[in-house]
Amino acid sequence: MTKPLIISDCDEVLLHMIVPFQQWLGESQGVTFRMVGNSFADAMRWTESGEPVGERDIWRLLGGFFDTEMGRQTPINGSVQGINALAEHADVVILTNLNDERQVRRKQQLADHGVHARVFTNQGPKGPALAAILAEYAPSRAIFIDDLPQHIKSAAEIVPHVRRLHLCGEPMLAPHINCAHEAGDAHARIDNWAEATPWLLEQLLQEDFE
Question: Is pTM beyond 0.90 here?
């Protein structure tokens, strides 16, 4: 009989990303990052001019961060303990929206923090990637965890039988992110692992999963 499967995002679910990114931008890139609304792009401005950072430079800066600064990322409180507790009852894989050439570094980064899991990279909506992972593992049940509502919605549309948790563990971002649970796409919205871990374990172990 196949095992259950946990499919988890990484940035802002397992590891802090926006805070070290903000620090790096201010220290060496001449960019001020200040989250006001829910637009990531609007949060980035050139410090000297106050002008918004253009889309091409946003992607360049994000790529530069993941190429050279992943060592700045630290675990979300309780995430390592939580995901490892889940791994006692299920297979755990990571589905992260990074370019494929960064897969090895992401896997090593997580291992350095005590999370030893297979890492899948992806670009764009995560629903199709989830479907491919499910086809490979054929789990008895599956749970998907992500911090962004668009990925939760993609999962709801393409693999609706998967249980979905909306979790953003970064306090700087969480208040600005639209709630996938309120939108009807997630089964729950929990932004801390102290509460998320028992909820996830309950979902894994309950008999009437469907």
Answer: yes
